[in-house]
Specification:
This protein is of the alpha+beta class and 276 residues long. The chain has two domains: 134 residues, OB fold (Dihydrolipoamide Acetyltransferase, E2P); 103 residues, Sandwich (Immunoglobulin-like). 20% of the residues lie in helices and 33% in strands. It contains four helices and 18 strands. The strands form five sheets. It has a five-stranded mixed barrel. Strands 8-18-17-12-13 form a five-stranded mixed sheet, with no helix packed on it. A hairpin with a 4-residue loop joins β9 and β10. 28% of the residues are buried. About 8% of the residues have low confidence.
Length: 276
C-alpha cells in the first residue's frame, strides 16, 4: 500500500510539473509588458499577433496611418512597417483607457525588440498623422510634438506643403442634417447624397470603412444640391454616375461580415454614418 501511495504522489508531482511547463502563449489574456509573436501584416495600420492558437488584430493607438493605396507613399510605408515588424519577430503592447476599438481590434502603443516605439517612428517619418479619439488621450501632447517636427522637416506626407493635419484631433459627433451615406456592398460602392438646398464642399473629407479600417480622402469637390457622389472600390466597376471616384485597387466592403461606414468633415466631426 505504501508503494502505491508513493507512485500516486510521484504521478501527481509529474502532472503539476508538466502543467507549469506549458508556454505562456497558450493564454488568451492580453497583458502589458509581455512579448507577443508577430503574425500577418494586414495593411498599413493593422497586423496580427499570435497567442498560441488564438490570433488578435492590432492597430496603432492614436495614429491615422497613410493608406496602402496612397499613390505617393502607400507602398513604401507598407514595406517599412512589414520590415520593422517581421525583423522584430515579437512586439510589446501598452494601452490607453480603451484597449479595443469598436470593431474589436486592439489599439496599442507598439514597441519592437530593439526598443523602437513604432507609433512614434511612423509619426517622425511622416508616415502617419495624429488622430486622438477620446477618452484615449494620454499620448496626445507627445505625439503632437513629434508630428509638428515631422511637418516642419517636410518629411513623408508633409513633403506636400498643402497637406493638412487633423486640426481638431478629437473626433466629435455632430447633428448634421441633409447629407446621407449609403453602402452597396455587392457593387462595392458608397453613395453620398446632398439633400440640402446649398452646395457642400467635400474637399478633404474622410469616408471610413470602420470594419476594414480603410479611409478614402476626398480631393477638391463640391457636391451640388440634390446631387450625389459615388465612391467605387476599384476602377473595375463601370459607372454611369455623374460623379464617380475610385478608392483603390482592392475591394473595401466585406460581404462575409457586418460592415459600417462613417463620413467625417475636415474638423473630424461625424457627418453621416451607415451600418448593417
Amino acid at each position: 500500500m505504501r508503494n502505491l501511495n508513493y507512485v500516486g504522489l510521484c504521478l501527481a508531482f509529474m502532472l503539476l510539473a508538466a502543467c507549469s511547463a506549458l508556454p505562456a502563449t497558450t493564454s488568451n489574456v492580453i497583458k502589458e509588458n509581455t512579448w507577443f509573436p508577430v503574425g500577418k501584416i494586414l495593411n498599413n495600420d493593422s497586423f496580427e499577433i499570435l497567442l498560441g492558437d488564438h490570433i488578435e488584430q492590432v492597430t496603432f493607438l492614436s495614429l491615422d496611418v497613410t493608406n496602402i493605396n496612397d499613390e505617393a507613399f502607400g507602398t513604401d510605408i507598407h514595406q517599412y512597417i512589414s520590415d520593422q515588424l517581421l525583423a522584430s519577430e515579437q512586439v510589446m503592447l501598452s494601452f490607453d483607457t480603451e484597449m479595443r476599438k469598436e470593431n474589436g481590434q486592439l489599439q496599442a502603443i507598439v514597441q519592437l525588440q530593439d526598443g523602437t516605439i513604432l507609433n512614434e517612428k511612423l509619426l517622425e517619418l511622416g508616415y502617419a498623422k495624429l488622430l486622438i479619439v477620446e477618452p484615449n488621450i494620454k499620448m496626445e501632447n507627445v505625439y503632437k510634438q513629434i508630428e509638428q517636427q515631422a511637418k516642419g522637416n517636410h518629411t513623408g506626407v508633409w513633403i506636400n506643403a498643402e497637406e493638412t493635419s487633423n486640426e481638431d484631433v478629437t473626433i466629435k459627433e455632430t447633428r448634421y442634417t441633409g447629407i446621407s451615406l449609403a453602402i452597396n456592398k455587392r457593387e462595392q460602392k458608397a453613395i453620398i447624397s446632398n439633400h440640402t438646398l446649398t452646395e457642400i464642399d467635400l474637399s478633404h473629407w474622410k469616408l471610413l470603412s470602420v470594419t476594414g479600417n480603410q479611409t478614402y480622402i476626398f480631393e477638391e469637390f463640391i457636391l451640388e444640391p440634390g446631387e450625389k457622389i459615388t465612391i467605387y472600390a476599384t476602377e473595375n466597376q463601370k459607372s454611369k454616375d455623374l460623379y464617380s471616384y475610385y478608392w483603390g485597387s482592392d475591394d473595401v466592403w466585406d460581404l462575409s461580415q457586418k460592415e459600417s461606414a462613417e463620413l467625417y468633415n475636415t474638423k473630424n466631426e461625424l457627418i453621416a454614418e451607415w451600418e448593417e
